[in-house]
Amino acid sequence: MALVQPLDPNHDPDTKKLAEFFNETLGFCPNSVLTMQHRPAISKAFINLNKAVMANEGRVTSALKRMIAWVSSNATGCRYCQAHAIRAAERYGAEQEQLDNIWEYRTHPAFSEAERAALDFSLQASQVPNAVDAEIKERLYQHWNEGEIVEMLGVISLFGYLNRWNDSQGTDIEDGAVESANQYLGKHGWEKGKHDGSKY
């Protein structure tokens, strides 16, 4: 059971309007956002930040951004965000081979060197203590410009917030997210954990 219960999607009209964004990304409004509505200023600010971070202004595709989010969430252990990120990557056109082999991104031929650099950056930036160093900076600059690196770090930082929120909250995971996680992550041991609605 979640720490705080989500509110009805109609609780705050402004949040409801902004949350239409998630119908495209996930196919539903996340329970995390419905919980943030207890303080609508937080839900609205979060959705606007999410929209800004996920906007594509360079070569960092929507699919890659969601894979960056998955690596970050995997590093921190948030199963809720792992499921959401892999679902969104699927909905934004990530290649089937990438979805099936996300755990092996460092060695699988479905991933380019540019993508590997981005995903390694996500892994290093999501660790505590932070592991970003001169080597990853050099690799990033071989493939990406500064604006694109800022986009990536925006995704990593956004999911740092979400990982803290959802793992502390024990947010109940939605059926659609469970379906995607089971399909792509289940073979590696993904399970709902505290997000199943009864264990917390």
Automatic annotation (TrEMBL):
Superkingdom of this entry's organism? Bacteria
Domain named Carboxymuconolactone decarboxylase-like: residues? 40-120
Read off the Gene3D superfamilies from this record: AhpD-like (1.20.1290.10)
Query: Which residues span the membrane?
Result: none
One Pfam family, short name please? CMD
Q: What is this protein called?
A: Carboxymuconolactone decarboxylase family protein
Organism, by scientific name, is Croceitalea marina
